[in-house]
Design goal:
The structure is a homodimer of 200-residue chains. By secondary structure, chain A is α+β, with helices and mostly antiparallel strands. Chain A has one domain: Glutaredoxin (3-Layer(aba) Sandwich), CATH 3.40.30.10. Helix content of chain A is 54%, strand content 11%. Chain A has a four-stranded mixed β-sheet with strand order 2-1-3-4, with helices on both faces. In chain A, strand 3 and strand 4 form a beta hairpin. In chain A, helix 1 runs antiparallel to helix 6, helix 5 crosses helix 9 and helix 6 packs across helix 7. Chain A is globular and about 40 Å long. The two termini of chain A are 20 Å apart. Chains A, B: Keywords: Isomerase. Chains A, B: It comes from Aquirhabdus parva. Chains A, B: Its EC number is 5.99.1.4.
């Protein structure tokens, strides 16, 4: 089956609202024969450009308090397990590099979901080598090979380039979706992004 | 008909996303027998607390560019006329005081919608006395009386108190909805807020 239409899914493994988007997007896109292009990026780099050295949810307490409550409500609506991480935001650099280095592999969607679940369902440190190794093992992948590969400067550069591409595309938060040049921001815009893909 | 359940609708006449919320809320709430309590507040006061002296949509260009495009798309989806105002944000102080001073009057929902349309459909200056006078006249109201009333210090204080109440309630943006102490932020959360009202 060939996919003609595609949706760029820009996410950060540290981003709370990226979690429900990551858990939902493949099923929704598949049902409309839309290909998902999984694009991790470093939201922190964008925040730094805006003068923030932390998540705005930490900098602005009212916004943060709302987000945690909203996440609990929306995960309940979507039947997703959710546990507020004891550390926020967590460092998704290693997991992001793995996605960059293997973006065409069929296991990428499952890997992304496992990492998000580690962070937001199991409250695990996704920057921990053991946590990532276990996820790779659980997916029957060659963890050693994959973890060696991401030490290459080329892969590190790829993630930086991808973050630059996000900025160039107008991305300022996560999750974001791009369909035919149209940007949609936020988990609750996923359906609108897919509708746009179908209608245009 | 008595309304048992109610939804607090916190809005700012300058706020773009408050426009579709204001145009939609009465019809949606009425159909579920939910009373809307119309609560204007001054978002600028909240932004100042966060260290911003302008709308974040002006301060952060990527966020602003996205918002204008998203507004155009969502108003198209909702069949609402929308014209990007030549001045943003506009000063909704006069209109907000009128709502504060007359919050129990039956004409308030229509007045609110007219002011939002003046700003976001007709690109009119809602801080202009002539614009507000015409809206009041169009609603067959005693414009002179209403415009005199809002000169009272008591009314000016009321709007400030209401803004303080918004902050105390956790409001950090507009539109916001509060149902049974639950806060919902953003036009696209209106349906969730009403569902919460029905379910609890």
């Amino acid at each position: 089956m060939t996919h003609k239409r595609s949706i760029l899914f820009w996410f950060d493994f540290a981003s709370t609202y990226s979690y429900p988007a990551a858990m939902r997007i493949a099923t929704l896109a598949d049902s409309s024969n839309i290909q998902v292009i999984w694009r991790p990026f470093l939201l922190g780099a964008i925040f730094q450009q805006q003068g923030w050295n932390d998540s705005p949810f930490n900098i602005y307490p009212a916004k943060g308090a709302y987000m945690w409550r909203d996440m609990a409500r929306l995960c309940m609506r979507e039947n997703l397990d959710f546990k507020r991480p004891t550390v926020f935001p967590r460092n998704g650099l290693m997991a992001s590099r793995i996605v960059c280095a293997n973006h065409n592999e069929l296991w990428i969607p499952a890997f992304v979901r496992h990492v998000f679940q580690a962070n937001f369902k199991y409250d695990l440190n996704i920057a921990d080598l053991d946590v990532i190794t276990k996820i790779l093992n659980d997916l029957d992948l060659d963890a050693d090979k994959i973890l060696n590969q991401i030490k290459q400067q080329e892969i590190k550069n790829l993630l930086r380039q991808q973050t630059d591409e996000a900025i160039q595309s107008g991305v300022f938060g996560a999750p974001s979706f791009i369909v035919e040049g149209e940007l949609f921001w936020g988990n609750d815009q996923l359906e609108h992004a897919l509708d746009w893909c179908i209608d245009h």
